[in-house]
Records
---
Amino acid sequence: MEGRMQWFIALCISVISVQVSGGERLRVQWDRVDTSFPDDFDTVQLREVGSFHWEKKSFLVSNPSRHVTGYVAYVDDPSRFHFALPSEGCGHRVKTSLTAKQNGCTYATNAGFFDMNTGQCMGNLVINKNEIQLSSDLERVTFGLLGNQVLIGYIQVSSLKRLPPFDELISGAGWLVRESKSIVNVSRVTEHIEDGFVTEKAPRTGLGVLASGQLVVLQVDGIEDEKKGVDLYEFAECFTSLNATQAMNLDGGGSSVSWSASDGIIDYPTCSDTPVKCERAVTSIVCIK
């Protein structure tokens, strides 16, 4: 792993020289600090592919076999991909659509986990090279963007600080896909994720990289009260059906929402986990400029 770290540092320097809530019910604990876990991450080269677009897509999932509705945003240029916060910063909850407008986003979804009571961001967060917070070492999957390189996996804060500053960085809960295969059985143990969080049918939001080198944002609709949506295994299936080589899970449940500057809210958000359509106030968002 030391060799991989040295290789990535060299790669990052090379890149720079030419240019890194949880829902009411869908909860995941963030208090398990582990300073002994080894760095274990992959790096992926992104490519500029086509033009930015999003689509509403039906996914076939397996447990039980059925179709679910998702919204896929295909990022044509990595430089357009950002995370963003409300103007007040962490500790303030604002609807994704409003934060998106404040930050000039073309397309947006919810992003990182947060404290439902205080609005405090959870995990690591870097926006436009600005370190919002690097949390205590916590074995949770991390997504980092540096130029046209993505780092995804497990990395300690001490290791992060040895690397050049990331353009964007965020913590998730659940490394879904690695080398084109679902690894939920592994990541649920590695990240100490509660069984209920893994197996509940719920709305989900996540990030992935396709075999083509294109970055994608995927959000799947659901209603927790009616056990509609996908569990993490099925969410991984959605990503692999897109031919994703890597994917990770972000905040979901009633926080999940997809928004377009030209169309407004394009999915069916359920902020109270019931069939009532409503948009939840969150903290960080995915913002495609």
---
Amino acid sequence: MPSTDVDAAAALLIQLKDDNFGSDTTLGTLQKLKIYGRNFLVTNYIFKSSEETAIIQKYAKKNKSLQIRLEALRILANALLLRPTLRNLFQDADAIAVDYLDCTVEEEFVASRILFLATAENLTISFSIVQYARAKIEQHAQNYTHRSSTAVQETCKLLFNCLIRSSEGLLDQERLAGNVLTILSQLASTLESPASNLISCLVKLSAVNTGPYIDKLLAILENALQTEEFKKESVILPLLIVIYRTYNEAPESDVLQAVKQKILPTGEERKKPLGTAVSVSGGLLRLVTDPAFPTCRELAYQLFWDSSDQDARKFIHNIGLGYAVGYLVNHGIAVPQDIVENVKDETKYNPVTGQQIDEETHKLSDMTDEEKEREAERLFVLFERLNKNGFIKVENPIRTAVESGRFQELKE
């Protein structure tokens, strides 16, 4: 970084300290400093203490024009982002929270980002900042537009800080959660911001009835499980927490039924092995076998278990023994001994894969010899593991087939 850039930025800061210019000159000076301030080395040099940020803060006052205020706020936001040590030294957060209770969405976007950064490392958060965050969420609940989305995103990040670090943030949870849910209901059913930010706030709002919004939450989950960019544990986990909590706390039978209907495999899905369908149940079953989702895995399993009335037989019927055995073993739940022995029972489902047996037989005729061998090897390993764990004791059908001569290894 040329020293001339640092010197030029420092000179601009000195000019702004005097504040003896007209509005046009002041705006131009702030815009130049903003550009220089995007570089870490410049920001690290010129913003050494709260004294420098105080120079910029005076241009963020409401007695300045909108454009001047916005430029000043942007400079402060960049400084707090690039120089974290400034955050604990920043003394004007409360003033910003009070001044910008009533502001445009453009101002809110930057003001909320400043307040978020200023509170990121604080153990406590002042009442004025909490009041600002709650007031903004309420304003958006009453009059949300697509133009407000980025402002809501930043305010939700601030609100999350308030909820985990301020007792005032948790006051009147029902009203606050109602506002959060009202905004969420107006968004597309995806985990794009600000929906993901709103859901993260819901995780911290325990005293709330999300039952009436269960269809919206399940629609968001369905989209997330099919969208690669959202398939990250940190993104999906808050949503699964809210859905699981809704299921367990909802007194309404229609909520319980809505969850069961969405996450349990349908008859159509059972025409193929479970976990292959493009659906909520298919996505969750793929998720429980993905090592990148250790916490989501347990929540997903718990949803399946609770939706199966915590009954091992129903659980195995609903998701297949191949998926169910991991949960059952880890939780010390015995597998009914006759589950695998009675494959061709009245349900006509393969208890291991969950697939309809008549469909399975039909598909077998279409498989190549190599595909049949791979499937046989997969089932052999599964049965051997189940027997080794001691949760079921049955004859491995693949081993029986080999020993009886009904299974022959393919020639190279």
---
Amino acid sequence: MNSIKFIPILIVVISTTLLISIAIWTSFISSVVEETNENSADESVVYNLNIIQNATTSVKGEGIQLTTTSHDLFHENSEGFAVYRLPAIVYHQQTFLVFCEGRKGTADSSISQIVMKRGHLNGTKISWDQTLTVVAKINGTRLANPVPFVDKDTNTIFVAYNVLTAGITEPMFLAQDHYNQSILLIKSQDLGVTWSEPHNITDETLGRMHPVPIFYAPGPGHAIQMKSGRLVMQGNYYYREINSTHKTYKSNTTDHGVVFVSDNHGQNWRPGGFVPYAEDNKGHAIDTSESSVVELANNTLCINSRTLSKSQPRAQALSTDGGDSFGSPVLVKELTEPENIGDVASGCEGSTLGFTAPKNWTKYGQVKSSASDKEQPWVLFSNPADPFIRIFMSIRLSTDGCQTWSKPWTIWDLASGYSDLVQYDDANNKDYQGPRFGIVYENGYIDTVSTVSFMTFTLDDVRNGVKATKLRAELKQNQIVS
């Protein structure tokens, strides 16, 4: 009976805490929106640049210049869909192809189709399709997690995706004893103008995995082709632990990053390696969920994964045999990801992109210790870099094979979600000025999925953006910028 007396007090405490949290968040949104409301949608990603430049001039004596350009590709409640999720991008022969789930409702389990918009590079200008193209649909069904990749040897663009029963949620999938889904693959050899009939690769991938997966999710984001020609498609899968001492997720399952590989240009596929079970120094399981993969030097792959524990940053695992096996995951403290307080799972998807290190690497303040280091690709990483909620879409750089990462360059201060990175430099272009990059990402003022935007940038922008982000943090701390 005594405990009943405390229930009204507990309700008051919880309500007060909630109201204070809402007030703080509303104040934060209002302060940043004031800075953005005079900018056009296509320039929103660099809304605070003038403030940074003016502040830098007065405090440091020099301005910080960025060369980014941006364009909004998909908007919620438009072109027949309620929302667009899980953007993924590839580039080939002066053409960008951006894919999303076009959802009829806002829930993950909604009926959805795979949609695409193409961008066309002409010199340094990019023109985008005005309307979307539906590249895959099955009436009344959920098509999810588009994963595009390019086979440069055959000039073929592939897209893999999940086929799921609409209305079935993640907990319902994980309660099953066996996967109930299909993995389909379509391809185009004319830069996305036309697409093949889907090829079902479920039996040769999920059907050959032991233990049997309970559920599998491709990607999200782009997959890769290795220098050897091998195609590597990343994802994650759950399986049920039986008679095990492992700490488990929902329905007694554990989650593992995994790759599927093809050594004959996508004709046949097989399971590659998966990230094994591991625990952190606090005894918590490291569940490696949604994953991105990048090729490093010497046939090495790095798989970078979202984790499901609120106490953990992102995790990485290495394969030294081209993806046939992976070592234990290691938590990367620099790669902060959101706790997603109140959501089903912690963390958020992130993207990695490997590229050849520039010849003038000393310009970027990097120290190379040996000749072999010069062969190590550099890697970009993007995600919402806040430890609590999905805000601060940011880009980081690693110059040592994903061992260490730069401070973040925050490209969007407000709500943000999934993203994907792409390189589109063309050394044969007479106007070639070095590698250029693009990022496609979910964003909004309050809702993380209001818009899917695309932004171009260079390595100089990353370097200067990191400086600008650090400066802005210092100015806010000193109350120079409200």
---
Amino acid sequence: MTFIIIFIWTLAAFAQECRGQITVTQSPSITAEQPGGTVNIKCKTSRDVRRLNNGDEELPPPKNLNFLWETPFRLSLTWEKPEDLDSDCKVNYIVHVYKSQNCSYKGDPNKKSYRVSHLSHKVNVANKNGLCISVSTNPENCGDRGHSRLTTIILPPPGN
């Protein structure tokens, strides 16, 4: 029983130390068991917590990625700042433009990447074979937080 109480207090202390004030809720809130018995505790966090392979917490992704063709060869991209971003966390964004509808080929020689500090970017590009555009939130000064998952849009070629 003492171990369980220490475990719960440890979880509570950890939740208060996390950036973004993540709340951990235990179900059931109180439980008792004889020494040597088994106790099952379920915990739920107040928001999605993702960890990267190295243990760092992932930043939230950009929201509402949109595009506008200003000319047949000039694409304007805009997005919104991610939710749940700490006020002391400084970020930039990585924009990837693939000259195809396939976003998964990492060694693609037709992929262009841009690092930007604002919520928009203009790209000079032709849309012959379709495009895959992705944007991620990238940490500048966010403690041990890592880059976000990609927010992606796929543009078919003209006439499709």
